[in-house]
Amino acid sequence: MISCSDRSLAMPARRQLIKGAAVGAGLGVMSPVLLAQNADAPVSPEVTKLVNDFLKGGKPLADGLKLDLPVLGDNPSSVPIKVRVTLPIDSNNWCEELIVIAESNPVPLATRLYFFPAMGAAEAAIRLRLIASQNIRALARMNDGRLLMTRQFIEVAPGSCGL
Hints:
Blueprint: H1 7-34, H2 45-55, E1 65-68, E2 72-73, E3 79-85, E4 95-102, E5 109-114, E6 123-128, E7 134-142, E8 147-156
Parallel strand pairs: 2-8
Antiparallel strand pairs: 1-3, 3-6, 4-5, 4-7, 7-8
């Protein structure tokens, strides 16, 4: 136990306790907002139509496409997203088209990109405006007909994007 005469040790510990309590209280208030949507939220008919139109009845592979995004989008008006095809790209094997879908946005199709064999890679770094915590989905079509798909959930902090 720290005695009153040893105030040099008591003050930092008390400040840490107060900071910890404030952070805990803040998380308690924010957690219902952040958890309002979960990773298994139902997909809208518009998103289903986008995916089906892209796949055209094909079965997507889970490997070969990497989506890189933060766990928490602290600025919902500009969330950095990176997507890239991890398969080897050459003049015989390349990605023709890639789309990114923000499943809960009012207009889910975030971007559509076209690639050519001479590019040597199929990757993009974009910034999205996200209206809420949601799944981000990326789909790619290779020149030989293979389809790739990946999906990742992102929490969005309340901010200037209508939350």
